[in-house]
Amino acid sequence: MTGGTAVTATDPSALLPDDTSTALLVGRVWDPESGGPRPVRVAGEEVFDLFDAAPTVSELLETTGQEQIRATGGSARWRLSDLVGASLSRDSERAHLLAPIDLQVVKACGVTFADSMVERVIEERCAGDPARAAELRERVGQTLPAEIATVQPGSTAASALKKVLVEEGLWSQYLEVGLGPDPEVFTKAPVLSSVGYGAQVGIPEFSTWNNPEPELVLVVDSQGRARGATLGNDVNLRDVEGRSALLLGMAKDNNASSAVGPLIRLFDDSFTMDTVRQERIMLRVEGADDGYVLEGENSVGRLSRSFEQLISATYGTHHQYPDGFALYTGTLFAPVQDRDTPGMGFTHKHGDRVSIRSTHLGTLINDVAPTSSLPRWQFGIRALVNYIHGHGQRR
Question: Which residue stretches, if any, does this entry annotate as coiled coil (predicted)?
């Protein structure tokens, strides 16, 4: 798709939610002065250092109440416009924004929308070959029954539909997690590996068919309580997963394949889970050299499973997360428009700018680059522990 109105901007106010005056926003900043990450609260242009209250965002959400978060920080330490400028220019010598999560495990749900479920079936049937996708898309669309888009997963009607599809030889592992009682939940990225606002996202050189996945990300504490929400880009290699679902790790977990941000908006009386159940997440991809523009939308209200169902499939007596987890909730968006060769669909090019925006969560901006060209990921859990110990936070 070409044309339309850009959702990108370098104005720091464009990073923030539309109703920022009432939003309680927390995140992380890389502080060159101390050589490590600092949890922060963002209030308009003012950015407050919360490290003395809690050295990690994970601990902040576990131990610190909202009123304490609002009151903590003293005078502002940074200006948001300075952080945005450094982040977009990727100037590591200046303070800049990081992904707003740290010790949380990064989990993701797949096949949570009927539309994207059908695209996964197409990927599977064409074995990851984009040249066959258009033909199969038409054939699969004509073959699958219309009620597949509206049936409730795990219901009696879904079981009956499954029986029909099995008898007709149309059953797929993607239809199983899309229609069956259990959703797909997988580990998207290692702890501390997600990138934030302004950083580059990576595409490995072995992939030639890939796309962004704009998603709502729930931030959940160690007790399974959703504490807030943010935006995410679940970078996806369609050709790799299409070859085999057993290559999911190769398709989903690569350097800078998880982008989260710009900030976590904490749930409160004016911003609740019900607020984001109907969130519209807008995507815009702008080519660096070819003038190409792709626009799309992820309508969270069309999720086939509730947030509560996705959280309970991730956390419970079967699995705990002592430091909490961030949960990508899936995407409706699956681009089918041709970018270059007719019939080959969309794939990223190096230098693409990906902007993901919603009314209540702000804007996440990242540029696409080969994974081999990205800075090596070096700041992990050991480095974080050493940093905290070296700065007076021995608990």
Answer: none
Q: Is residue 381's pLDDT more than 60?
A: yes
Q: How far is CA 330 from the centre of its chain?
A: 8
Q: How far apart are CA 43 and CA 24, in angstroms?
A: 8
| pLDDT, tens only, 218-261 | 999 999 999 999 999 999 999 999 899 899 999 999 999 999 99
Q: What is the rounded average pLDDT for all residues in the chain? A: 90
The model's pTM: 0.90
CA dist 88 and 149 (Å) reads 39
Distance between CA 139 and CA 160 in Å, rounded? 22
For 154-195, the pLDDT digits (tens) are 888 888 877 877 776 777 888 888 888 999 999 999 999 999
Q: What is the mean pLDDT of residues 121-145?
A: 74
Same domain, 316 and 251: yes
Give the helix/strand (H/E) hosting 216.
Answer: strand 214-220
Instruction: Tell me whether residue 353 is exposed, middle or buried, using C-beta atoms within 10 angstroms of its C-beta: 0 to 12, 13 to 18, 19 or more.
Output: middle
SS3 32: coil
> What is the pLDDT, as a whole number, of residue 393?
53
Q: Is the pLDDT of residue 2 over 70?
A: no
pLDDT of residue 130: 78
Nearest to 97 by CA among 108, 109, 86, 113: 86
Task: Write 320-323 long-range contacts (CB < 8 A, 24+).
Answer: 320/222, 321/104, 321/105, 321/220, 321/222, 322/222, 323/56, 323/58, 323/103, 323/104, 323/105, 323/191, 323/222
Domain count, the chain: 2
Task: Give me the helix-helix angle, 114-125 and 133-143, nearest 10°.
Answer: 120
d(CA 219, CA 257): 18
* C-beta of residue 327 within 8 angstroms of C-beta of residue 109: yes
Q: Using DSSP, state whether 294 is helix, strand or coil.
A: strand
Report d(CA 11, CA 367) in Å as an integer: 17
For 146, the domain range is 114-179
Q: Are 237 and 343 members of one domain? A: yes
Domain-embedded: residue 129: yes
Q: Which residues pair with 228 in a beta bridge?
A: 219, 266
In a domain, 331, yes or no: yes
Under DSSP, the state recorded for 75 is S
